[in-house]
Design brief:
The chain has 330 residues and is α+β, with helices and mostly antiparallel strands. The chain folds into 2 domains: 2-70, no CATH class; 75-328, Fumarylacetoacetate hydrolase, domain 2. The protein is built from 7 helices and 20 strands. The protein has helices at 35-40, 42-57, 89-98, 156-161, 178-183, 242-249, 278-289; strands at 2-6, 14-18, 24-27, 65-66, 81-85, 113-115, 128-129, 137-138, 141-147, 163-170, 173-174, 196-197, 201-202, 211-212, 215-216, 221-224, 227-230, 259-262, 302-306, 319-324. 46% of the residues are buried.
Length: 330
């Protein structure tokens, strides 16, 4: 199934079911008003929504309408929890090499993870609003999963069974604010503004053989100012699969339905596959030339993040954003 959330002037929007080809949609308010309600009682709502999805795909839906991603909020406009891992250890290693720091061996066996802000996610077409270009504005293309309830101390296998939906996220970072925050020893806060999500969150079965062993094996396509800068495969070089990331988050606490767990910036060891964040490009430049050459995003810059199926059709819809100052936000 494929779900989206319609902008309707409320905080949580209105649940939509979207056809497999992303051409049509149907409101699901007669079944459940929001995606969070569905996640709260998946076994009750999912079969009813499956009937709507099947009807859409066979042209039998009642009151279908054309799907428009520009009218979408994030699938979950606010969530009970957003925990972002760093499962592509190649990315972490490059960052540390660029600054001459040793790579702790435990980074290969124990995931890095931070708890981000989940009260204000933004939609796939919403602007990246930033008060200053000097903050070092960067995109980060990631895969994310949305869970049902996951009990404390769940094993990776049990945790993986808790995945209900898969989506994409642009986990925006303000790179020039990060060093001072990390130096305090308490982690990210001001350096992590609102994350943007793809218009669709989809059930893993929609991915077929590309969803296996807790990883999504498809290229992540990233365009910066209209130029393709990255197409790394999200399943390659993912050291920690989503079951391990979720289990890490649940080691000492229950995770409630609607928890979102991110993969971290997708990164491949093969540099020819490009990059999913500017910081990685700058690290490669520093390693090769002694200093970065590529600047971070400026006002007016655009980023597009998307993933396609074997036929070249969009799986989740695209994240397409522009960077703007506060007084220009749409």
């Amino acid at each position: 199934m494929k779900f989206a959330t319609l902008k309707d002037g409320t905080r949580d929007g209105q649940l939509m079911v979207v056809s497999r080809d992303l051409q049509t949609a149907a409101l699901a308010d007669a079944i459940a008003p929001t995606l969070q309600r569905v996640l709260d009682d998946w076994t009750f709502y999912a079969p009813q929504l499956q009937e709507v999805y099947d009807a859409l795909n066979h042209g039998r839906a009642r009151h279908p309408f054309a799907f428009d991603a520009s009218q979408c909020m994030a699938p979950l406009p606010r969530a009970y929890q957003w925990a972002d891992g760093s499962s592509y250890v190649n990315h972490v290693e490059l960052v540390r090499r660029a600054r001459g720091a040793e790579m702790p061996p435990e980074f290969w066996s124990d995931p890095l993870m931070y708890q981000g802000g989940s009260d204000d996610f933004i939609g796939p077409k919403d602007d990246i609003v930033c008060a200053s270009e000097a903050f070092g504005i960067d995109f980060e293309a990631e895969v994310a999963v949305i869970t049902t309830d996951v009990p404390m101390a769940a094993t990776p296998e049990q945790a993986l069974n808790g995945v209900r939906l898969v989506t994409l996220v642009n986990d925006v970072s303000l790179r020039n604010l990060i060093p001072a925050e990390l130096a305090k020893g308490f982690g990210f806060f001001q350096s992590k503004p609102a994350s943007a999500f793809a218009p669709l969150a989809i059930t893993p079965d929609e991915l077929g053989e590309h969803w296996r062993e807790g990883r999504l094996h498809r290229p992540m396509l990233v365009h910066w100012n209209g130029k393709k800068v990255g197409q790394p495969d999200a399943g390659t070089d993912m050291v920690f699969h989503f079951g391990q990331l979720i289990a890490h988050a649940a080691k000492t606490r229950n995770l409630r339905a609607g928890t979102i767990v991110g993969s971290g910036t997708v990164s491949n060891k093969d540099a020819k596959r490009g990059y999913c964040c500017i910081a990685e490009k700058r690290c490669l430049e520093t390693i090769e030339h002694g200093a970065p050459k590529t600047a971070f995003m400026q006002y007016g810059d655009t980023v597009k993040i998307e993933m396609l199926d074997d036929a070249g059709k969009s799986l989740f819809g695209a994240i397409e954003q522009s960077v703007v100052p506060p007084d220009s936000a749409s």
